[in-house]
Design brief:
about 90 residues, 4-stranded antiparallel sheet, flat, alpha+beta, 1 helix
C-alpha cells in the first residue's frame, strides 16, 4: 500500500471510530478533514501513523499496516497526564 492510500484509509477509520464513540446528545461529528496526521513512517512494505482529531477529547490513534499480511491494526489512546522531569 502506498503512503497516500494508507493515510487516506487511516483518516477514514479514525473519523468513523470517533463518530461511533461520541455522545450523540452533543450533536457533534467529525469527518476526514477533522483528522490530522501527527507522525507517519513507511519502511519497506509497512506503514505506521499517529493521528488525532480537532475534537477536544484527548484521544490519539496509532495505525499500523503490516504489508506482509495485508493487515491494518488500530489502537485508540487517551492521554491522562503529562509530566515534566528535569534530567541533569
Amino acid at each position: 500500500m502506498d503512503n497516500l492510500k494508507f493515510i487516506d484509509k487511516c483518516r477514514e477509520l479514525v473519523a468513523n471510530y470517533a463518530n461511533e464513540h461520541l455522545d450523540k446528545t452533543d450533536n457533534v461529528s467529525v469527518d476526514e478533514s477533522n483528522v490530522f496526521v501527527v507522525w507517519s513512517a513507511k519502511i519497506l512494505q509497512n506503514n505506521k501513523a499517529l493521528l488525532s482529531t480537532t475534537l477536544f477529547d484527548g484521544m490519539y490513534y496509532e495505525l499500523t499496516y503490516n504489508g506482509d499480511k495485508k493487515e491494518l491494526y488500530f489502537d485508540a489512546y487517551k492521554k491522562f497526564e503529562n509530566k515534566k522531569f528535569d534530567i541533569e
